[in-house]
Amino acid sequence: MTEQDFIPKTYTNAIENGSFTWASPSNIALVKYWGKKEHQIPENPSISFTLNNCKTTTTVSFSKKDDSNAFSFDVFLDGEKKDDFKPKIETFFKRVAVYLPFLKNYHFKIETSNTFPHSSGIASSASGMSALALCLMSIEKELIEPDGISSTVEESHFIKKASFLARLGSGSACRSLEGDLVVWGMHDGIKGSSDLYGVKYPFEVHQNFKNYQDTILLVDKGEKQVSSTVGHNLMFGHPFAQERFKQANKNLSDMVSILKDGDLDAFIALVESEALTLHAMMMTSMPYFILMKPNTLHIINKIWAFRQQTNSKVCFTLDAGANVHVLYPEQEATSVLEFIENELVAYCQNGQYICDVIGLGANKL
Questions:
Q1: N or C: where does the chain have the smaller number of CB atoms within 10 Å of the terminal CB?
Q2: pLDDT tens track for 117-137
């Protein structure tokens, strides 16, 4: 598909007002995307676990305006008006206006809430933008399909376009609509993969990876030191960028075999290497950043020691921040959670962590 396939031909139904609510999860990349071209196109493909408990719930209420000269909307987080969110939404609306030509015809009230701290490295932009995109797609579906009774907007197109729109708000948001593994970015070994939207992982997944656990250790709940947009832009002219893009493509190929065979040792090695490589790219950019905190390193070393002592299959990954995602098979949940409580919680801000599990994706409420 191309961008042109997401431009609607006509709207046949008239709607004065209404509202839709969607809950959409965050995701954690196993093979990381870092670096993008114009229009939110990734420099390399990525694959992620869709989370279940870390999610954003968004309600979009809309009412017809007398004019269609400009975008009109208000944004609320946990019931509090957030005008500082408006520039990002304005940018998003500008990017998607050609694909959602009804946007200037309505005033929107966007009400959102997270189950996790905003801007704390748990990809709130991914869950937030995907939830918003789904709400807007529900509006468009009503404009095309009176009372939602027609099959004009097929479910597969609905999800693809929502993922396509979400990507234009936040790249990784396109991986948050479905579960439990999602690929974003063109890859020769994955049929149907696209730079324009995320696709559900199409191949066999070993039982070892079913109901995989992710406990997120909140090392630092404050605002991120550097935004993802700034971080991605630092890949332009980065001396190691091209080798990194090649590495990510190879790692995704290797991950296909790992997921099929259930090789947990290979999974651990690849996932941890990907996490450290992401941070290495930030540390070797210009300007350079160290996003990990001292407690991040304490946790990593504790995990390595625990794994060596017990032969556990626990491992870690990181996003572009200080928090640590502790990944482990379902059958190790009791022992790993005991380890977390006894040895890792002390390194979390206020002792806080979030227990999550790989989920099924977004749902309409």
A1: C
A2: 654 556 578 999 999 999 999
